[in-house]
Amino acid sequence: CEELWQGKAHIPRISKFQRLPKLAAYSLSVMDGKRCEELWQGKAHIPRISKFQGLPKLAAYSLSVMDGKRTRITRQDLCDHIWEFHFTEAAPGYWRNLDPYWNGTGPPMRRYFQPDGTITADDNDRVWGGHESCYTVVTGLLADGKIREHYMRINRWPKLSVHRRQDWGWELSNHLYCYTSVPDADKEDGTGPFFPLL
Asked: What global pTM score does this model have?
């Protein structure tokens, strides 16, 4: 046997076998759920697909990592979260003066995306005029299935760019205003789509 292992061509195979115990130990730690808890620690949102009953822990971990890298927002994402809203510095002074973000007169304004495509706000919101607001998520795909463009539009106002934060939260923004998802990792069933998206 020693003659067989002395060839340099066999060294990579040996090193692969030497790594197997570490890989097996890592897989076991993922399967016992500790790695999922570590991964989810400090995250703004936990993916719904990782919380399905009976899902193996290794699958929950993998789906969580995959969903955390997703930059394509869905209607489920919008409706599952409460959103903080504020104007940017480029917005007209009239609007900034009404905005608690800028004048420090209270908690941030909140917006709620509804499944029927409308948006609502809190009753005491000084900016919200009670007007009808509708949202649309626009995703343009290339022939190979890759995303060409992805944005959100409210009414006919300037489109909102979609950004995913490192804590798996969402930000929708343009030069006038910004929406930020409020962390809700404590939701028992998770949030977001019911199936994996790229």
From this structure: 0.80
